[in-house]
Amino acid sequence: MINECKRVAIAQLCSSADMASNLKVVKKMIFKAIQDKADVVFFPEASDYLSQNPLHSRYLAQKSPQFIQELQSSITDLVKQTSRNIDVSIGVHLPPTEQDLLEENDRVKNVLLYINHEGKILQEYQKLHLFDVDVPNGPILKESKSVQPGKVIPDIIDTPVGKLGSAICYDIRFPELSLKLRSMGAEILCFPSAFTTKTGEAHWELLGRARAVDTQCYVIMPGQEGVHDLCDPKWEKQQDVSAPTKSPLRESWGHSMIIGPWGEIIAQVDPNRTGPQLIFANLDQESLQGVRNRMPLCKQRRDDLFH
């Protein structure tokens, strides 16, 4: 059950190829979330970095473990400093393992980490559905060129704000994952994302509200926002390339929001503001249970027909 008066924060930011700079922003936002009495703060997909291309991503991913270790230390330091606990959900990358390389798979992993207030990683969910699309009048993106897909549906996490089901970005378009997480006990679903502006304008809010109504869960949607700085002079020098020709424009939709189990938006960022933003909401147990009791979808589902 969701504990009454438990408070969530979601962070919207604009990650770059500069991991040290990104980490500073993340730390500041965790501190602000603690000050505003959040119990869990949710960050977007790829909070550690965004890259120019698959080769650049593999280069940056080698530094991601250090990013994660420094983040874990920062969480415990901030908890001690403020005498208040906070857990962190954050999207990052991981480099391929030795076994991956033996199997000639050098693609990185797009993962969502859940780190508790003691700095311990309780879950490492690897993105199942990869964004391979050619958007009309928009970008052509082939995530599978640089990212290896996950193979495991994540367990439900008991968190200070309720039972959490984890997903990432493009996963939101596949309702069977959300329904599976609900059947496993989820009360909250999170979709940390870096939606393109074209797909975001068309479907971001629609998909979030649909998943909330489908599952009668709170839906947490922290997103990357704005034009990302993908310049990396050190890497570009190693590759003997120039930034203007190798740093394509990458812009994310933002519009981060928290949606209730009846499909209503209960908190959202100001779309007219730029720069990092935090929004907050109290997740109400009575409201969640009321929706589920009045319309008992799980009990009425025809599992005898649909498998």
Explain what this protein looks like in three dimensions:
The chain is α/β, with parallel strands linked by helices and 307 residues long. The protein has one domain: Nitrilase/N-carbamoyl-D-aminoacid amidohydrolase (4-Layer Sandwich). It is 33% helix and 23% strand. Helix 1 (19-35) links the parallel strand 1 (6-12) and strand 2. Helix 1 (19-35) packs parallel to helix 3 (64-82). The longest helix is centred in the first third of the chain and has 19 residues, at 64-82. Pfam families: CN_hydrolase. InterPro entries: C-N_Hydrolase, C-N_Hydrolase_sf, Nit1/2_C-N_Hydrolase, UPF0012_CS.
Number of strands: 16
Residue stretches low in confidence (pLDDT < 50, at least 5 long) are none
Reported for the largest beta sheet, the result is: 6 strands, mixed
- Percentage of residues in helical conformation: 25-40%
Strand order, largest beta sheet: 5-4-3-2-1-16
CATH second-level architecture: 4-Layer Sandwich
Q: What is the CATH level 1 assignment?
A: Alpha Beta
Q: What is the overall number of helices? A: 10
CATH homologous superfamily, by name? Carbon-nitrogen hydrolase
Number of domains: 1
Strand fraction = 15-25%
Q: H/E series, N to C?
A: EHEHHEHEEEEEEHEHEEHHEEEEHH
CATH topology group: Nitrilase/N-carbamoyl-D-aminoacid amidohydrolase
Based on Cα principal axes, name the global outline: globular
Give the overall pLDDT as a whole number. 94
What gap, in angstroms, lies between the N and C termini? 27 Å
Integer-rounded radius of gyration: 19 Å
Main location: cytoplasm
Keywords: Cytoplasm, Hydrolase
GO molecular function, one term: hydrolase activity, acting on carbon-nitrogen (but not peptide) bonds, in linear amides
Domain CN hydrolase: 6-285
